[in-house]
Write a structure and sequence with these properties.
The complex is a heterodimer of chains A (114) and B (113).
Chain A: E1 4-7, E2 10-13, E3 19-25, E4 31-38, E5 42-51, E6 54-57, E7 65-66, E8 76-78, E9 87-94, E10 104-105, E11 109-113
Chain B: E1 3-7, E2 10-14, E3 19-26, E4 30-38, E5 45-50, E6 56-59, E7 62-66, E8 70-75, E9 84-92, E10 101-103, E11 107-112
Parallel strand pairs in B: 2-11
Antiparallel strand pairs in B: 1-3, 3-8, 4-5, 4-9, 6-7, 7-8, 9-10, 9-11
The chains are: A mainly beta (114), B mainly beta (113).
């Protein structure tokens, strides 16, 4: 089954404790992206990757890191999480950035930073 | 800067009562407008892509249309299972952030039996 898989689905942690949210897709997609979803603000892009070893900032990249060492994986790293990063996070992938293929989303990771 | 505004924020319908959701957008050049459905606890699920003014797409009780400034999602004779948040997003043809989707805040649709 074609899918985008995120782990963990839920995480409660404390300020400053490094964490990684994994994202994996099995569709051989070139383009991957991370979004955060907050009430009243909608979905906002954090980082995206056009292909392996190619990443760039979205609208709200501060406090986050990403890497794209393999085509299928695009982990999101919070090196020193803070309470304002409490949010619902979604990973998405699509065939390419310049095509009009739709982005497919994972089921989300709900992070709570205390 | 790309902007997407959806209205209404919430819509309550009786089963069978048809209505429309609106998505107004501002982009320098439209590469595509996307409609998604999001159920509680799930990621957005793709519904339609529209590319140019005048285009229409249909899927079951849903029909999406596009003009140069807005898109409508028409829901005909809705059922309770159509209850969800509907998201509109645009992809700009220009800019430096290739592939980025700019989302509206969504319309929460509730269909009562």
């Amino acid at each position: 089954e074609a899918q985008v898989t995120q782990n963990p689905r839920y995480l409660i942690t404390v300020t400053g404790k490094k964490l990684t949210v994994t994202c994996s897709q099995n569709m051989n997609h070139e383009y991957m992206s991370w979004y955060r979803q907050d009430p009243g603000l909608g979905l906002r892009q954090i980082y995206y990757s056009m292909n392996v070893e190619v990443t760039d900032k979205g609208d709200v990249p501060e406090g986050y890191k990403v890497s794209r060492k393999e085509k299928r994986n695009f982990p999101l790293i919070l090196e020193s999480p803070s309470p304002n990063q409490t949010s619902l996070y979604f990973c998405a992938s699509s065939l390419g950035a310049t095509s009009n293929q739709p982005q497919h989303f994972g089921d989300g990771t709900r992070l709570s930073i205390l | 800067e790309d902007q997407v505004t959806q209205s209404p924020e919430a819509l309550r319908l009786q089963e069978g009562e048809s209505s429309s959701l609106n998505c107004s957008y501002t982009v320098s050049g439209l590469r595509g407008l996307f409609w998604y459905r999001q159920d509680p606890g799930k990621g957005p699920e793709f519904l339609f892509t529209l590319y140019s003014a005048g285009e229409e797409k249909e899927k079951e009780r849903l029909k999406a249309t596009l003009t140069k400034k807005e898109s409508f999602l028409h829901i005909t004779a809705p059922k309770p299972e159509d209850s969800a948040t509907y998201l509109c997003a645009v992809r700009d043809a220009g800019g430096t952030s290739y592939g980025k989707l700019t989302f509206g805040q969504g319309t929460i649709l509730t269909v009562h039996p």
